[in-house]
Amino acid sequence: MKYRHWAFDRRLLTILLIVFVQMIGASMVHPILPLFAQSEFNMEPEAITLLLTAFFAAQFLAGPFIGRWSDRRGRLPVLLISQVGTVFAFLMIGFSQSVALLFSARILDGITGGNIVVAMAYVTDIMPESKRTQALGYVMAAFGLGFIVGPAMGGVLASELGPRVPFIVAAAAAFITVMITRLTLEETLSPEDQARNREDARARIDPATLLTNVPLMAVMCITFVGRFGFGLLIGTFALFAEEVLFAGYDLAAVSLGVGLLLMLVGIGQFFTQIVLLPAAINRVNDPAIVLLGSISRALALFILAVAVGPSLAGLSMVLFAIGSGLLMPALQSLVTKTVSQALRGAILGMHQSVMNLAVILSTALSGVLFALDPALPNWLGAILYSLSLVPGILLWLWARNNTIEESAGVMVSTQ
Prior knowledge:
The protein is mainly α and 415 residues long. Helices cover 80% and strands 1% of the residues.
């Protein structure tokens, strides 16, 4: 694999464009789906949160296989197949006439939802290790820009044209990413690389040695705890906004308000990737950045838990975006350094599955907690983010005396 000058790498710019367009579509859907399910199908909060659970459960099961498949068969074909699945899933929701079809669409999108995992693997393929965190930060910036445009667009489309229109537009956005990928991207794994990875099929992530890989265990723990809090937030945010932040407003106004609040997440993430993350990379290492991100997200959810109107909620969204913008690129960069290059896609798939498992459990729980008290999911999330500082400190202490790469060989078993 030959690295090009990363700042001007056309492949990186293309991936950023793909992620941006993909997130416009996805971020239009997320704030609208709970309200759509409630208004069109009279679903209860406990059932609505299970729509999120179904998506992440399917992604949890499929993630490692998709990542490993991309190691063995190439990033490009797997990326295309997963994007096509997203197109069909959004169309199914937009034209759905039953709750069963809604759940089927979410499961399909979850199974084929490895496009972001493969995009991350693609970036790690083309970036030199010293620039990986910042490159993944730019991917998060593309996420942020998508969240600036998508939620507001979804809110406007739902309020002006009806609740089904955002899903049709999201499908169109996903189809655009298919065309961009097909026409502009090239494969990063040579036939020789793919053949070597296939021949190395006995190489696996050995559970017996998992516990000895200290940095990987710390990264996975932080990921799980943090993602659990995230699932509590997304599982009930639209419902919390309707019940508390915009109490007394009609559905169209609530949809628009939720979209604008989530737009702040996009603005905060974009600012973080362009300004805060590069400054942090120049001053501290990845484990320290993880600590800063965890602190910011904990503070964000404590603020949201006491918010009774959109002003404090807006501040919470900005702090949450800053925390996520610092945390996620650092964790993704760290996890790729804990295994050999042949398992890079697989470990990113495993990392994604850990995130999905946390969201499966938390979104299923969030509706129950919300029924007890609308602010309860936010309180629990804030506490969990605070607890994630413990493995973060352990990771930071480990990095003071060891290099992360020293553990890369621990995970590879050829038994």
